[in-house]
Amino acid sequence: xxxxxxxxxxxxxxxxxxxxxxxxxxxxxxxxxxxxxxxxxxxxxxxxxxxxxxxxxxxxxxxxxxxxxxxxxxxxxxxxxxxxxxxxxxxxxxxxxxxxxxxxxxxxxxxxxxxxxxxxxxxxxxxxxxxxxxxxxxxxxxxxxxxxxxxxxxxxxxxxxxxxxxxxxxxxxxxxxxxxxxxxxxxxxxxxxxxxxxxxxxxxxxxxxxxxxxxxxxxxxxxxxxxxxxxxxxxxxxxxxxxxxxxxxxxxxxxxxxxxxxxxxxxxxxxxxxxxxxxxxxxxxxxxxxxxxxxxxxxxxxxxxxxxxxxxxxxxxxxxxxxxxxxxxxxxxxxxxxxxxxxxxxxxxxxxxxxxxxxxxxxxxxxxxxxxxxxxxxxxxxxxxxxxxxxxxxxxxxxxxxxxxxxxxxxxxxxxxxxxxxxxxxxxxxxxxxxxxxxxxxxxxxxxxxxxxxxxxxxxxxxxxxxxxxxxxxxxxxxxxxxxxxxxxxxxxxxxxxxxxxxxxxxxxxxxxxxxxxxxxxxxxxxxxxxxxxxxxxxxxxxxxxxxxxxxxxxxxxxxxxxxxxxxxxxxxxxxxxxxxxxxxxxxxx
Length: 590
What we know:
Shape: elongated
Structural class: alpha+beta
Strand content: 15-25%
Mean pLDDT: 76
Strand order of the largest sheet: 3-11-12-13-5-8
Largest sheet: 6 strands, antiparallel
Low-confidence stretches: 1-30, 493-590
Distance between the termini: 55 Å
């Protein structure tokens, strides 16, 4: 099997474990070990291989709900493992790995992150190899005093076979792995919340006993499939010591030791509390922030043209796949739009000296002139509306810029604003938009919005009006100066953010082209099939977005990774910026 295939299989298993960890965090914030009364044989004294087994032995008492185990003492410590009992129909393999804190951290990785399992397994030592039972010799492993251990079994195979035969760690298949760290287990909805290990301490010696349940589907939950003792009394990691932030949680257990958060909420399960996590919804224990903007690399998109590595992947600006190598800065067109036959200049960079192709909507358009920093074309015969323009050369494509083709007679700016006010006048968004449009058609172009509204299907227009009515734009500022500042910042910033591969409903699968409908909000519908044959997406949505990329900012929805763009914090005095619509990737016209 090739290295690439192995890597792909391991990634699949990692993502399964990550999904299980997140499901555990959501559905099972707490769990409990089974009561001893529910266990028909445990705890066990003696050893099955010596014929001296005593079931339900009173010498051992339960260690309640412990998943990570602390080795007492300091320096090198030898732990002797004795396989004492097994009632398993299928053999198991027992292994152990060391973690770096009581929550299971391995280096800079939390159990919720991709890469955690390979890093943990790379540390693992096999205690009893596959096929072992209570008749195998005792095994001794040297560890460090004070170290923290996690145990796991592979049921029906070895670790290597797990990665190749069951890369998703499906509990209905073999081999399958179960861990003492419950959040790693693939079955969080089972009887004990995914818990597969129970521990006991001897009252007369230093022995610690552990017992694994090796089935999930059709399990009897008797926890007697792999029962072993450890020669040293392994302990629950202590949660005590100083509490710098005074929230009642000692620093050693606090997921935000410098920020008070008594609730310890951790939405993404990365061991960093929401109160101090720079990516609340994306697991990132390391909290990397390459550009220092307060948003972690794990949930940042590359800012094209700022000379910095914003997403922490080691690639800057044009070298990053998030930034197109062909970049449109603007379309030189009149404020009232470019009429059919008019010459439009596409200004940008990276077009090269060898001509490529140019798309307007979903049509290839003849190019009149092609230079590295500008391309000229004549507006083809099109219905009135808003179209997206894209430059393509080989496999490289630019982001899309909006072109207005006027299809109706447009009056003066004052008359146009009055007509729009009749539609939007009672909304806070119109107060903001109107204030900007009266002073700058560059930042808010009413002719675009008017054309789109008059060219759209009535149902589509009504949906946009209803969407705008539900937006609270009061956070844009209480003065015209503040509103203009935000509008200018939105316009400047929007062209610097992009993500490849965004598809809109107006794209043509047969050609493989990607078109992006610049929707004002996610709830705006796309155009009809007839309109899509000549336009890229919704006219109304395109015009509203191209006129003012402000519609979605005030929604304040939580940022999600892989959205097409997000607006920098500096554009508004709100707590955190919201994402633009996932289908938005164009910039406002100038």
